[in-house]
Each structure stands twice: as structure tokens, then as C-alpha cells.
Amino acid sequence: MIVYGAADGGATATAPQPAPAEESAVIVVAGTRLPVPADDLGANVSVLEREDFDAEKPAQLADLLRKVAGLHVDQVGGRGGTGSLYLRGADPNYTLVLVNGVRVNDPTNARGGSFDFSTFDVDDVERIEIARGPYSALFGGDALAGVVNIVTRQHAGTRTHASLDAMAGAYDTHELALRAGGGLAGGSWSLGASDSSEGEVVRGNSYDSRRVSGAFENELAGGKFRLQLNGRYAESERAGFPDDSGGYEFADIRETEHRDAHESVFGANLATFVGGNRLALTLGYFERGETVESPGVAPGIRDPFGVPPSVVASDISRFSAAFTGNTDFSGIALAYGAEFIREQGTSDGNLDFGGGFLVPTSFDLTRTSWAPYAEIHMGGASGASLQAGVRVDNPEDYSSVTSPRVRLAYGFEGSRAGLITLAGAWGKGFKLPSMYALGHPLVGNPDLAPERSESWELQLSQDYGYGGAHWSLTWFQSEFRNAIDFDSGPPPMLVNRNRVDSEGFELAGWIEAGDDWKLDASVTQAKSRIASTGGELRNRPEWRAGAGAHWSPNDSLTFTTTVTYVGTSFDSSIPTGDVHLPSYTLVDVSASWQVSKTLEAYLAVDNLTDEQYRQFVGFEVRGIAPRAGVRLSF
User: Given this model, what pLDDT does residue 9 score?
Assistant: First the structure.
């Protein structure tokens, strides 16, 4: 089931925050720096839970996000291609992505600093939290359109356990995952590892990855402090036709592009209570390296010169440190603190124009930023509440940027219908130019200005009194200014020249019909256009819808069905020029059987109706894909 926030509140913005020892509620990590249980989420926050992953048996992270209101996720071919997330019609690099509260966007890539969702394995995910709207007031740069926080699986309690998951399916797809956890020195620990592979689900694509992750939590100094540590390392090798090449169907150059990548994420959180105030120090480290060998793209209708072959090795490392304090007085909750970020990006590469003529594309940039922030939350017996925050970022070589966000809500208590909430929110966001955009020797522009956003939303939602159903209807309008785009010149260069407007609505809800049925659904309409010309943006379907059903006729059997509709979208490639891709509907099903306390078996079928569809020009998806798996628990 997708949990949609029904009242004001939210969660912390740092690594998973410890609640008081006597508190058992799960604390979420998106929407606010004030520790709030999941049941009190903000109205524009959705949470995907592990129990639903276990029921639906998704093959990849994109499958989990399909049903969420306001989101569109696509992938260039199979898992060998880049996976991008568009939040309310905004560019993928306008969404800040966190792993356990640590920033993982990559500013050295040519996509403006977006996160590639294709390489994250589902077995390592405990929950996913999505906050819509500009959140620079809490997180600073990159949160122009929203925030996605991926929380990895971490063991709670002292009982030792272990599990083994094995899956195999069509197109040489397989995965093996190990997990263990238990008590240690009065605390808890967990470790996980996986190996996954996918063959040619799309012809020309291949994917292999390995991952190891772990966490440790304990109380120190007789319970005065709580320490949390988490870490994750992953590596992958992928192959596929280059972006803009027209894929298997249209690419004139039949060689594929190869991408080898590794990434590390580490987080640490130390918290204590002093005089009724909760104080926390959070440290984060992210490092990612990728080598891309591309055969290039032949000249075509859209570009008479094409793209020459290239070899690029890039690396980004980022360190962050944040101090946060939380206090409550007279019904007012206050969060305050400061954050420091240092990141270094390097890229070593060249373009091959033939005949031994190589043009270097290397750059090396380092930048720092620090920011104070504060947030306040007030609620009263009248049913009215206020949530407001502000952050002042001071990035190196740029003027300071002040980012505010305000949300007002009023709850109407109904007799039989339950609580009805009317809420409105407004906020601003910003994003520094990516290191690629600033430093690339051929198209980079050191004079680029930060991109800006401003957004409004109005929501009506209802929680039924018995807690078994919820719905919400949200209208939103966003404006993105100083959008960075490519100018063919001469000379060719990245410039600030566009303003993009996005407007639409999200309708979402869920219902639990006893212990047997869980149903959820959403419909999103998001229209994004270039303000000056009214031109369409690539890969942004105006209409999306999703629905899911879980049926458990007894304690041993669970059946699920998910349906996703994606409307027509505009795309382009060098060999074909501009193209409109037709709409499509996907149906995925699964059935799982708890054979015994230690053994579970399941069967899943992706694309049950064998839909022939494309998310990008020329990149086919090869139809129905059955999978089967088992889980042993000890």
C-alpha cells in the first residue's frame, strides 16, 4: 500500500533519526526536519513500504515508483540504460535523491546532475519516501521539484536472523541476495549482499551488479547518546545503445556503449537529549566513479554532424556535516541547525574525431557551501496548523540564496466521513549548475547562474475515521527559471535561457477492505511547456495513472496486480528527429506462497499482456517476462 500523508507533519531530513527510547513509531526522512511518526506525514509526502515490495515482487526500483502520484519513471531500454525520474513534469536533475539521508546526485554527468535509478536493487530497500514541491528550505540545492529518500534495510532488535533470496526469469534474468542481522554489544547490526544480472530484455542491453550494505545502532554512555551507522557499496557493468542513437531499431552504428560504475554511501548520526532539546550531529559521505566508452552516434535528421566516439572516466566525492536541534514549547515545535557540504568532481576523457585527432574533455572542480536553517510547526485545537521553514545557502563563488517554504492546513472533523483537511503550500528552490555544465572544456560555461523554482499547491484530502481509507486531490503550479539548455552557437555552449512552466493535478487514494484486500490508485495530469515558445519537453507524458490490488485469502497466499497507464509523449533522436510515442498500459501480476515458516515461493509475470511499447525512440521493450523465486529464512 502507498501511504499518502493525510495531515501536516513530515519527517527528518538527515540520516535516519533516532526517536526517544520509549517511542516505537517509525520516523520517516522526507518533508521536515522535525521528527514525526509516519502516521503524521505531510500532505504532499508519500511512503512506499517494504511489506508491499515483498507482496508485489518488483524486478527493479522503477516498478515500485510507477503508481505514485506525480511521478514518471522511464529507462533507456532495459537496466543497461539510464533510469530517470520526472517529478511533476520537472527535469530529472531537479529532484534531490538521498540514500539514508545522504545526497547521491552526480553533478559530473552530462544529464545535469540527476540520479540514475536503474542500478539500485530492490532487495536493499526498506522504504521510499517522496516529498513533492521545492524543498530547498530544508535541503538546499537540487531540491527544485522535490526529494526522494531511499531508506535501506536495517535490522531492529537483538534476535539473530538470516535469509536467502534467489530469483530467475526470462531473458537470462537472475538475482541472489543474502541478509543477516542480530544483536551486538547491546545494540543491533545488519549486513546484506546481492548479485543480479539481466540479459537482453532490450536487444543490445545487458546489466550486471553487485552490492554489499550494512548498519549498526547502539546506545552509548548509559543511554545518553544514540549512535547510528550505515554504509553501502555497489558496482555495475552495463551495455546499451547510446542516448539519442535511436536504439536497436534506428542506430546506424551497431556497437553498444559500455558503462562501468561503482559507488559508496556512508552515514553516521549521533543524537542526545539535553534539557528537553534533541541535538544531533549527522555526517555523510558519497563517492561515485564511472567509465563510459561510447561508439558515438552517426549523423542523422536532427544533427548532420552526429556525436563522435568518446571515452570518459568521471568521479564525484561529497562530504556533508549537519548539526540539528529540535525543541518543543507551548505546542510549538522548532528545528534549527546548520549544514556544511564539500564536493569534488573530476572527469578525464576525450572525443575521437578520427585520424588520431583527439579532443580532451577533462575538468576538475571543487566547491563548498554552508547554510543555516530553521523550521517551525504550530498546531492547535482549532484544527489549524502552520509549517514554515527557511534556509540561507552560501555556496562558494555565488551570492547567498534564501529559500523559504510555508504550508497552512485546516482540518474539519466530520462525524461519519472522518477528518477532511484543506492545505496550501508555497515555496522556492534553487540548484547550482552542475560541474559538467561549468567545467566541460567544449560546452561548459563558468558564467552560468543557478536555476530557480517557485511552486504553489492546494490540496483537499480526507482520512476516514476508522483509518481504513484515504484520498487526496492536489493542484500544483511550478515555474522553473534560468533553465540550462544547449545553444549550438557558434560557439556551442550551455546557457541559461529557458523558463519552464508546469501545472496539473494529482488524485490518489487507498483503501483496506478488511484483512484480505488492499487497493490503491492514482491519476496524474502534468503539463510542462517552455514558457517562451510553448514547446513540449521530451519524455514527459501529460497523463499517467496507476492502480494496485493485494489479495490475501489466507495467511499463506498473497496475489497482487498492478496496472500502469502512460499517455503519449514527445521524444527525439538523431536519426529520426522529433517523434511522438504512443500511449501504453502495463499489467504486472504476482503470487506468493508461504510454504512454511522458513520457506516462501513466488511467481511473478511482468507485462502480462505482452504490450509492445517504447519509452524512447527505437528502444523496444521485449514483452512478457515471467520470473520465479524462493526465500529461505532462518
Answer: 35
Give the percent of the chain with pLDDT over 90.
Answer: 71
C-alpha cell at 327: 525543541
Q: Which residues contact 550 (CB under 8 A, 6 or more apart)?
A: 1, 52, 55, 56, 517, 518, 519, 558, 559, 560
Bridge partners of residue 45, in order along the sequence: 131
Q: CB-based burial of residue 285 (10 Å sphere; 0-12 exposed, 13-18 middle, 19+ buried)?
A: middle
Question: Residue 4: exposed, middle, or buried by beta-carbon count in 10 A (0-12, 13-18, 19+)?
Answer: buried
**Which residues in 138-205 belong to E strands, given as ranges?**
146-152, 161-169, 173-184, 187-198
Separation between Cα atoms, residue 395 and residue 376, nearest integer Å = 24
Residue type, 136: S
Indicate the average pLDDT of the chain. Answer: 89
Q: For residue 203, is pLDDT > 80?
A: no
Expressed in angstroms, the distance from the first to the final Cα of the chain is 27
DSSP three-state, residue 276: coil
Local structure of 94: helix, strand or coil = helix
Predicted TM-score (pTM) of the model is 0.93
Task: Calculate mean pLDDT across residues 64-85.
Answer: 85
pLDDT tens digits, residue range 252-309?
A: 999 999 999 999 999 999 999 998 899 999 999 999 999 999 999 999 999 999 999 9
Flag whether pLDDT at 19 surpasses 50. Answer: no
Task: Spell out the domain ranges in the chain.
Answer: 2-271+278-633
Q: Do 44 and 5 contact (CB within 8 A), yes or no? A: yes
Distance CA 309, CA 296 (A): 4
Pick the CATH number of 2-271+278-633 from 1.10.443.10, 2.40.170.20, 3.40.50.300, 1.10.10.10: 2.40.170.20
Cis peptide before 491 (omega within 30 of 0): yes
191 pLDDT tier (thresholds 50, 70, 90): very high
- Distance between CA atoms of residues 47 and 38, nearest Å: 8
pLDDT band of 65, cuts 50, 70, 90: confident
Which residues have C-beta within 8 Å of that of residue 329, sequence separation ≥ 6?
Answer: none
Strands 146-152 and 95-99: parallel
Closest CA to 261 of 82, 501, 52: 82
Pair 346, 314: CB distance under 8 Å = yes
Helices marked H in 548-593:
none
Strand partners, 603: 591, 628
